[in-house]
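A reminder from the course coordinator: this example appears on the midterm review sheet, so study it carefully.

Given structure:
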């Protein structure tokens, strides 16, 4: 059955639900195609609500029976739910419904993955399980009984009675329905325990399919580290007797923070040295932390409505970034986060899908789990912390937990704790939540007498629905260097609040060199006409690790843009400066590896568009390749040593130091193989003892045109390991030559292991297709057509993943008229599809608008 017709929901229309839910009692009788769900829900009239309409959400349910206070009723049913007349006094509502998990391909509600029952209820999936007020501000304790013959049957909270064919669970903490979870299947546990600061012993388990138990140890360590960290840094303890994590193969997103029963996409929890890269390990650690941290920021304090999504997501991303910075290298984490922000959030905020961190309307909330809500939401919290300082930040958070524990809160509540803690007025700062778009920050310098002045001007271009913007509060971290490279003024935060504002520094006898926006202190685009010499100077001397990297990045960008526009050779000054950095052994190898990287082709396309040029994907591709060749040539003498010196002997360990050395060695390998035709890469492939080395060797071989044999061997070796085979699919598309990319992707869709119903596999092929910039935008338009075709096939099965992948088209207005015409034709073709889901239709509508 189709989703109910989409309707636009507005933040300003919020009203509380007419009833309070005092207690929820659920019984599940499991059956693949006919699961029965029996509910008993105790309702009280809500004295704070004026509207007492009794409407319960419910979709795709077969109602067997409903009763109020034991008397059967015949409620009014619609596609969206159930309405009934109810007493003006406390009452018990009961219902029995039937659902079919085995045919649920949308992976929302109760579904089956590899024979296992599992659920995904955020944001509005619970309504596909039973009739309920499926809104985050309705919180209640849940009692759950699962009946069935599955060896393992889990739900939220603490375990209760268990028999041969049933299991009971009690979750004492009131929660919204989106945090409900149930898992049942043939699972095995990797177990451990954790004792909280106040002495509560918590049983920990990671549940996986038999055969995967060897891939849990790393996730378990990450969980224990997260639990300790949240106690030490935020004073937050865990609050149940058990904490369960389950790995499932079919999952639309990364993972889900259900109370006491986190459900993970298996790609985000299973790890082993042989099958996972260093990048996988780091990401798994961060996602385990993220979901765990939600226990306080999301679960104990949840969101009043879905417009407040950033309240839990921005804060939890901020917290998991802090955690990773503490566990690993803070500058490396910051640089990686900014690379990611520029790759995913900036294009979103500069195109047709731009929306505020707190949106004001939506049709389908699933379409708002975006880089803006998550990553820009986290940036906003980082700015707040910078403005009030670390100490005040933690006092404000203590107050937040004390004041709002058990609440469904709002951004207003969140800002108020900062105002009350610091006495600041945050009304202008609040624009970060309501104004969309990336602010542009222009800087001009002036030096007179011994006074140095920075003149700033900020503007934010119009975005959909927001033609005019007010100035935002920008914390601009600035330090000053003198011409011999010493820091004369250490980092200070300039707080910009006006459209134009100047800041002076006095007593400077020589003209200083400013280092502006240190640590990327605000998510803006900085326009500073510095010139190459200045950037080369900062690349050599900046004491701020982020800005030192950024100086190199700026030089790389400019070099690439000049190659694209004028055919100029790669900038020699950049190559010289970079060489000095990468040979500097006092610098962290992970940092040097980041220095060796270069802006993505998509970022360059955005930059050219921003400058009023029409990006030519093929020219950009050639320039990017040219810069890599130039590096390989300029560093030819250095690379073999860099490669050898950073080999990590002994058994594999995923720690940050070892990973950093491997990253540097593999960056060197990828340049080396441009000159030795893959000889070194082949040697590494043949002896590789872990996936990081194996996959980077394979990439280098493919790049050198020598990948075919190794790709075949790789497949034979890993056939049957679905997560590794995802890498095999993705790599071939990602590294295909522009003119062949669509054909490679199409050929892979014919492979027996291609399974469109598995989101990881679908994304492996089509995420890689969209990520291969020159291939996706190849002039024949084949990739546009192929993606559109597959999105149309996937939509009836899985609207959420389809809608998410439509973002591949969000930057279409950057390109020339021919490409725009071809993309528009594909978007219109999707839009015209009979029975198109509300999710996809909203996305296509916004992209085309
Ligand atoms: N809250 C989860 C993300 C998530 C959101 C929606 C989902 O299904 C529609 C699944 C997971 C997180 O932030 O990790
Ligand atoms: Zn989250």
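Designed residues:
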């Amino acid at each position: 059955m189709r989703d109910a017709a989409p309707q636009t929901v507005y933040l300003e229309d919020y009203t509380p639900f007419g009833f309070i839910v005092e207690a929820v009692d659920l019984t599940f009788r499991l059956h693949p195609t006919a699961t029965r769900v029996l509910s008993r829900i105790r309702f009280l009239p809500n004295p704070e609500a004026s509207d007492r309409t009794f409407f319960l959400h419910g979709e795709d349910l077969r109602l067997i029976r409903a009763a109020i206070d034991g008397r059967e009723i015949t409620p009014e049913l619609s596609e969206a739910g159930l309405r009934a007349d109810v007493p003006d006094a406390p009452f018990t509502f009961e219902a029995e419904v039937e659902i079919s998990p085995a045919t649920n391909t949308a992976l929302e509600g109760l579904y089956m993955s590899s024979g296992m029952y599992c659920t995904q209820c955020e944001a509005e999936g619970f309504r596909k399980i039973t009739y309920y007020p499926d809104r985050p501000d309705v919180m209640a304790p849940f009692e759950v009984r699962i009946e069935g013959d599955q060896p393992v049957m889990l739900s939220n909270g603490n375990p209760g009675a268990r028999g041969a064919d049933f299991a009971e669970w009690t979750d004492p903490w009131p929660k919204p329905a989106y945090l409900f979870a149930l898992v049942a299947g043939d699972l095995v546990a990797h177990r451990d325990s954790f004792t909280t600061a106040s002495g509560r012993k918590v049983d920990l388990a990671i549940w996986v399919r038999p055969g995967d138990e060897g891939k849990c140890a790393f996730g378990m360590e990450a969980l224990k580290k997260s639990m300790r960290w949240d106690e030490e840094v935020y004073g937050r303890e865990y609050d149940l007797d058990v904490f369960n994590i389950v790995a499932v193969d079919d999952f639309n997103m990364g993972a889900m923070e259900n109370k006491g029963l986190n459900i993970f996409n298996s790609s985000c929890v299973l790890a082993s040295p042989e099958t996972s890269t260093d990048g996988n390990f780091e990401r798994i650690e961060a996602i385990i932390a993220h979901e765990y941290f939600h226990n306080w920021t999301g679960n104990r304090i949840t969101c009043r409505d879905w417009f407040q999504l950033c309240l839990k997501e921005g804060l939890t991303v901020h917290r998991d970034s802090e955690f990773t910075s503490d566990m690993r290298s803070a500058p490396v984490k910051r640089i990686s986060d900014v690379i990611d922000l520029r790759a995913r959030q900036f294009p979103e905020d500069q195109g047709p899908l731009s929306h505020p961190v707190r949106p004001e309307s939506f049709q389908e909330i699933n379409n708002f789990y975006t880089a803006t809500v998550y990553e820009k939401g986290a940036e906003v919290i980082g700015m707040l912390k910078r403005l009030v300082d670390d100490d005040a930040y933690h006092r404000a958070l203590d107050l937040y937990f004390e004041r709002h524990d058990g609440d469904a809160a709002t951004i207003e509540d969140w800002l108020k704790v900062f105002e009350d803690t610091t006495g600041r007025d945050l009304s202008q700062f609040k624009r970060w939540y309501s104004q969309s778009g990336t602010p542009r920050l222009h800087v001009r310098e002036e030096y007179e007498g011994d006074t140095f002045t920075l003149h700033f001007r900020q503007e934010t271009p119009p975005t959909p629905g927001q033609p005019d913007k007010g100035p935002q509060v920008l914390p601009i971290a600035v330090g000053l260097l003198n011409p011999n490279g010493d820091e004369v003024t250490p980092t200070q935060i300039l707080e910009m609040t006006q459209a134009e504002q100047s800041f002076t520094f006095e007593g400077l006898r020589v003209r200083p060199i400013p280092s502006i926006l240190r640590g990327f202190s605000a998510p803006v685009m900085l326009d500073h006409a510095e010139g190459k010499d200045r950037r080369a100077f900062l690349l050599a001397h900046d004491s701020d690790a982020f800005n030192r990297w950024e100086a190199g990045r700026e030089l790389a960008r400019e070099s690439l843009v000049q190659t694209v526009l004028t055919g100029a050779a790669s900038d020699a000054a950049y190559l010289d400066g970079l060489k000095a950095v990468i040979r500097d052994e006092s610098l962290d190898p992970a940092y040097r590896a980041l220095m060796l990287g270069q802006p993505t082709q998509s970022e360059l396309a955005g930059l050219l568009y921003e400058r009023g040029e029409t990006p030519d994907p093929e020219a950009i591709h050639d320039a990017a390749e040219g810069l890599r060749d130039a590096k390989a040539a300029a560093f030819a003498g250095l690379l073999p040593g860099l490669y050898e010196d950073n080999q990590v002997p002994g058994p594999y360990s995923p720690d940050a130091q070892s990973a950093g050395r491997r990253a540097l060695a593999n960056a060197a390998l990828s340049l080396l193989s441009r000159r030795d035709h893959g000889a070194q890469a082949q040697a590494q492939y043949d002896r590789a003892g872990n996936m990081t080395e194996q996959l980077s060797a394979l990439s280098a071989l493919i790049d050198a045109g020598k990948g075919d044999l190794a790709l075949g061997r790789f497949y034979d070796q890993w056939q049957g390991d679905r997560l590794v085979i995802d890498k095999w699919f993705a790599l071939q598309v990602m590294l295909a030559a522009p003119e062949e990319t669509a054909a490679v992707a199409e050929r892979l869709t014919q492979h027996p292991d291609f399974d469109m119903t598995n989101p990881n596999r679908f994304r492996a092929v089509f995420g890689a297709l969209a990520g291969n910039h020159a291939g996706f935008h190849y002039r024949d338009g084949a990739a546009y057509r192929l993606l559109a075709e597959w999105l149309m096939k996937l939509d009836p099965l899985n609207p959420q993943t389809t809608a998410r992948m439509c973002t591949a088209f969000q930057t279409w207005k950057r390109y020339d008229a021919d490409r725009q015409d071809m993309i528009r034709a594909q978007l219109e073709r999707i839009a015209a599809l009979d029975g198109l889901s509300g999710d996809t239709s909203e996305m296509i509508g916004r992209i085309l608008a």
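The radius of gyration is 27 Å. Residues 19 and 440 are 47 Å apart (CA to CA).
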